[in-house]
Specification:
CATH superfamily: Thiolase/Chalcone synthase
Largest sheet: 11 strands, mixed
CATH class: Alpha Beta
Number of domains: 1
Number of helices: 14
Order of helices and strands: EEHEHHEHHHEHEHEEEHEHHEHHEHEEE
């Protein structure tokens, strides 16, 4: 308990992205400092049959991604098919973050309406075109009949899904939640960002904290999920859960610049981090790792860097604060904050600081702390620090139990 709140344990994780399928593959990529390759780093090598079940053909590609990541997390938590009786399933829910949902089906559905009229709309496309389709797919596939929510908050969709889930658990709306994010690469989004010169147009690697000019995003796609449970309801799983979600906070949009990112010099993000740390009883000096949302876009990375300087001051300048930027590995997509959370859980649970491609360039740009080579050492606490277009910010604290 922290301040009378129940402890929240992470009992399972799942992930897939361009770097690979499954938590083991993701961990290997983080240890190796693997780099996403542009212009779009697609998740092409993943098993969409194991967890999707008999309804696989009815699911959109995004739905299959979400169900696969959720299935991996539930399996790791010991909650595979049949493990929950109906009463437990009613206390188990789903919270999914997604920036755009299955926009391809939405575009196709609306194109039919625009071209031929509402009476000619394709009804087969509508169920997967709505934003909460992925959360519904997960709930239906695993018969989870409890609390449900979908969070759409641009770059911080995954992080705010975790904030929402944590609040729901504390308020006793559920005993456990499958929570994460899912996003599919969208050709229309990629084309728009390239036209604005915000996305890489050629084969390129992300440059977190070291982008030239305005920078350019290497786009990615994927899904990630955690099973988060109240410790007082986790039962036998509590004994094998080494990581807790110890603190969380978010803030609404302050004044935003032309690209939508806050222009407050990192004040709101630093305050959210301080709130999350205080909730977990951790001082900034005791943070072992900061998992950042930096992705190679200057407006985003400068905001995160400003918050880091407010939090850690001279320690950051001296390179004493270990940093990681997993979007260098996954590519950027709105729900990739769920992958940041999985990276933090792996770092704490397995005891390592991830390597990040482009660490030397970031140090030359004034943000030392990224590691070019992974370090094997105890990580007691990992702080996830993220900011989104639209001004929202989020902080998550994971701690060793």
């Amino acid at each position: 308990m922290s301040g009378g709140r129940p402890a929240l344990l992470v009992t399972g994780a799942g992930a897939l992205c361009g770097a690979g399928d499954g938590v083991a593959a993701f961990e290997s990529a983080l240890r190796a400092g693997a780099a996403a390759r542009g212009p779009v780093w697609r998740a092409d090598a993943w098993d969409d049959k194991k967890h999707t079940g008999p309804d696989r053909r009815r699911l959109s590609r995004l739905g299959r991604m979400a169900v696969t990541a959720a299935g991996q997390a539930l399996e790791a938590a010991g909650l595979a098919d049949g493990a929950l009786d109906p009463a437990a399933a009613e206390r188990t829910g789903v919270v999914i973050g997604t920036g755009y949902g299955n926009a391809e089906d939405a575009i196709a559905f609306l194109a039919g309406v625009a071209e031929r009229g509402a009476e000619f709309a394709n009804p087969a496309l509508f169920p997967t075109s709505v934003l909460n389709a992925s959360a519904a797919h997960v709930s239906l596939r695993f018969k989870l009949t409890g609390y449900g929510a979908t969070i759409a908050a641009r770059d911080v969709s995954g992080e705010l899904a975790l904030v929402q889930a944590a609040d729901a658990l504390v308020l006793d709306h559920a005993d456990r939640l499958v929570v994460g994010g899912a996003e599919e690469a969208l050709p229309a989004l990629a084309a728009g960002l390239r036209k604005l010169r915000l996305a890489a147009a050629v084969d390129a690697a992300p440059a977190p904290f070291a982008a030239a000019g305005r920078g350019a995003l290497v786009l990615g796609e994927g899904a990630a999920a955690l099973v988060v449970e109240r410790a007082d309801r986790a039962g036998a799983r509590a004994a094998r859960a080494p990581v807790a979600l110890a603190g969380w906070a978010s803030a609404g949009p302050p004044a935003a610049g032309p690209l939508g990112y806050a222009t407050d010099g990192g004040v709101a993000l630093a305050r959210a981090a301080e709130e999350a740390l205080a909730a977990g009883g951790v001082a900034p000096a005791d943070v072992d790792l900061v998992v950042t949302g930096a992705a190679g876009l200057r407006a985003l990375d400068a905001l995160v860097a400003a918050a880091l300087r407010r939090l850690f001051g001279a320690r950051l300048a001296a390179g004493e604060v270990a940093l990681a930027a997993p979007r260098a590995c996954t590519g950027w997509f709105p729900a990739s904050g769920a992958h940041l959370a999985v990276a933090a859980v792996l770092a704490v649970g397995r005891g390592f600081v991830p390597a990040t491609s482009g660490a030397a360039a970031a140090a030359r740009a004034g943000v030392p702390g990224l590691r070019a080579v992974a370090e094997e050492r105890a990580v007691r606490t990992a702080l996830v620090l993220s900011a989104g277009a639209g001004g929202a910010v989020a902080a998550l604290l994971f701690a060793r139990v």
